[in-house]
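Schema walkthrough. Field components (list of strings):
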Amino acid sequence: MEYIKDLESLGNLISKFFRKGTSTNNYLLLDAYKNHIGQKKLGFVANGQNIAFLIEKSDFLQIFFYLNDLSEGLVFPPGKPLVMEIIYRGEQHKPTEIFRYWETYGFKLHLTRDNMFATFNKLNVQVNNTENIILKYADNEKEVIFTEKLLKSTLDKYTGDQLAIEEVRQFVTDKNVLCAYHNDEMAGVLQFEIKNKVVWLGHIAVDERFRGKGVANGLVEKYIIDNNFDENTKYQLWVIQDNLGAVNLYRKFGFIYGNKSTTSMLKIHN
Amino acid sequence: MERLIEILEGIRPDVDFTSEKKLIDDGILDSFDIVSIISELNDEYNISIRVHELGPENFNSVEAIMKMVARLSPE
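Field assembly_structure (string):
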């Protein structure tokens, strides 16, 4: 793998491989490129008409590809597992040919997530004071540690966008982490973030001992109500398609499918 | 400009591109939309949108996108 040293050389590579009809899963923008190049974490492998950019994560390499010839493969550096997310606009645009291409090279389909969204005026929020559940903003180290541990144990290792403890601490400082207590025991957390005026539900997790008790419902409700700046406030999230409990919860609140899905593919033993 | 709006509406039919002036700042378009737009613009106008053009200022409005296209178009 060769590393990208600057934006100029990155631009030259993308120009060379990004043409009419190119299949790509690359949705990185300028700030993300600058960040990855600055940290010396952006590399690439190329072969003939195809190229893949690789971002070094702590436990795996994340792949962003540009494919022009599906009869040519790419050779990846050995060692770390390989992970990619392929985003598409709804079921009718599912890139099955691209899935098959990567399956030929040992990748396996992993998880599909759907984008859901709503504006405040379309949401059904009724404040239900659930007995035994107390909701609050995380504000201490005990809650930081609980949040980090619960997210780590609940979210997918490769595609769950897990948070390091420093990131959790920052979100807590920014008042972006909600905690739920059930009978004085920490039961669940929800992390959100406001980006470009969209209130993103980043992560939500409920300790398995407290599932089915209204904890997630309470957390989502508070996330919606507390971030209601006006009737048109936008809310968005990604949910695992097969997690019907979560999908139904969001539907109940009034979230609808945003016509975007992403399917991850993995190659663990590379 | 009309053709550009047609292209943009093909990607995001739910957005009123003639009135929105903060497409990125207001979270109307995301990075996936931008990459889709780039792909269409490259083909339609025979331009190559470079990495350093991928900032929000070039995608906040139809006018900004048009300006970028004009700047990158062959003389």
